[in-house]
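Q: Protein A?
A:
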Amino acid sequence: MSIRAIADAVGVTPPSIYLHFADKDELIVEVCREQFRMLDQHLQAATADIEDPIEAMRACGRAYVEFGLSNAEGYRVLFMGRWDHGDKGEIAGPGEVELAAFVHLVENVERGIQQGRIAAGDPHLIALGLWSTAHGITSLLISHPGFPWPPDQSAMIDCVVTQAVEGVLA
């Protein structure tokens, strides 16, 4: 991906991109931040009216997979590749925007633990397990479209998410 290709895609000249971003790395970081914002908004919309933390976790898992499948290239950039930071060293760790969706999942797990519906444990580790399941099925569906998936992928996604959620119940 070059600045010229990006400029062509958005209909501007390459120098105009540098009016907004110092370099390509800064542009990519901002694109990723926007993808993380979109992910969190999608998950929040999917769970907005759900009071039950268990049902919210199921809805969140389904919405996560939906987001990844409907936004496969953005998802690949966020979660399925390794961005080479070159000689700039590591960028700062994830910030509030990048972590928002995960923080909301941890909060949901905490509610479930407080209600006695999720087995006692470290909410962060439980949330990591749930996220790993949603990420795993999303990544597999994106990266292996030729695999003999069941004809009803929606039912398969529900089954996988339900298995993960039921695995953490009290």
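Q: Protein B?
A:
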Amino acid sequence: MSGPASEPALILASASPRRRELLATLGLPFAIEVAEVVEFEAADADPRALVAHNAALKADWVAQRHPAAFVLGADTTVFVDGTVLNKPADLAEARAMLRRLAGRTHTVYTGLAFRRAADGLRWDEGVASEVTFHELDERAIDSYLEKVHTLDKAGSYSIQEHRELIVAGYQGSFSNIMGLPLEATKQILTRCGLLV
């Protein structure tokens, strides 16, 4: 039988294996609970507002079910030409996204939402990084798509897998581009007393 005593101190409200791996590097024990919410994904949305909304949606949903726990929600998207690039629906869309990003610089936004329902703790933060792609021809795009599963990734790419094929350079937090800005996460966890 589980009671409040067995409640984990920290819960990650995310299904992302990359966020799980990144959070684990901070050395804190945590549980995972995927929020059953419908994320906002409009292509013409303000990317900062979109990721903040989705991160809060996930964190709030989990925090209501575990009031004593500290809950972390996060959401990441790619933004170029005034358009939000979420996860591609299929390979054709993935290919189109890579074509669109080729030879250009785009911004990766992540929203972080920290919640603890028991005392009404709410902390929201946004982080942005910039990524510049190489010029890519169809062969380069095909080669990348053969090596990397991109359908579960915003903007249809993964900076930590075969980045030499597509990425010319980046500015800002590398872990943010992966989906969880560790610097900002660590700061907030420290301020809230979970990390010393």
